[in-house]
Amino acid sequence: MSKLYIGLDVSNALTSICAIDQAGEIAFELKVASDPDAIAAALRPHKRKIVVVGHEAGSLSQWLHVGMIRHRLPVRCLDSSHAHAALKAQRHKTDRNDALGIARIVKSGWVRDAHIRSPRSAQLRMALIMRRTLQRKIIDLELCLRQSVKVFGVKVGASNRKDFADKLRGAIGDDKLLQAIVHGVLRGRAALYEEFILVERELVKVAESDDVCRRLMTVPGVGPITALWFKATVDDPTRFGRSRLLGVYFGLTPRRRQSGEHDGRGSISKRGDPSVRSLLCFCAGSVLRAKAPSRLKLWAVALRKRASYGQTCVAVARKVCAILHRIWISGGVFDPGLPAQP
To answer: What is the DSSP string of 66-83?
Structure first.
């Protein structure tokens, strides 16, 4: 019985299916709706021959992956960066060629699988992304207002989220047109800010009621949002054999480029989730400023004396994510390693 290797190129409406045999020849090609039931129905006549079904990580991948597993299909979700690098070698990019390329990738086995998060972690990430989107829109509106009124010589100056609107209204004076435009945008900003606060409160409640997040928040600089981002992104701590691998996963380790006699190290790779990486770097800054004594702070302060602030923050962030992983695995809390000052 001939074995089949299936590649799926998923789009929003349709999915291209390509099956190749052991010789690498195309066995059949199909186009079906991007739905796990439709894909399973199309592959059902060939189910006994199928060795693996491969699809690239994307916005629909979690839903499709879980659905195809439910239909007992041997499915693999491919890391998007690896799949993209392999598919880039093709002369023409079409759905049909991409499906064929993915089938060839899974047949060769030379690819890394993407992690499929649990439904709970996926829900948390969605809520955190919505919070981040609201925050960015509020900042965008503030920056737009600041830059726009500069044309008329109006400078708002330093302000925080609460007094920004009052300072701007006072700065524009009695100009009727500016007042009409600016007040409308400020009302939109106020509505976004109100919803942002509500989302923030709900997420804080989730973090405070979660045992893992409570233990992660014992680390200096780690608050509810950072703990939730870390927990939702890692999802399963046992998939990392060593805690130091978290630094690689979040892109906090230097790139290496070795060829012949040259062996150079560059800036950090910046792979992985940028939100978690940024939050970990903010945590590193908090560690440097922390008043409570700990071995982590002593190490960070000593490192700061011989490295730049940015390099120190990256190194401390790398250590913090390893500590968070170890706390999660061990079931303990952060140990400062030094007696508290009287």
So the answer is: HHHHHTT--EEEEPHHHH
- Tell me how crowded residue 260 is: count the other CB atoms within 10 A of its CB: 5
- In sequence order, the β-bridge partners of residue 4 are 50
**pTM exceeds 0.90 for this model:** no
Q: What stretches of 71-118 show up as alpha helix (H) in DSSP?
A: 80-87, 95-108
**Segment 167-190, tens digit of pLDDT:** 888 877 777 777 788 888 889 999
68: buried, middle or exposed (CB in 10 Å: 19+, 13-18, 0-12)?
buried
Measure the CA–CA gap between 312 and 219, rounded to whole angstroms. 17
- The per-residue pLDDT for range 305-340, each reduced to its tens digit, is 999 999 999 999 999 999 999 999 999 999 887 554
| d(C-alpha 171, C-alpha 256), whole Å | 51
Question: Cα separations (Å) of 183 from 60, 161, 187?
Answer: 40, 16, 6
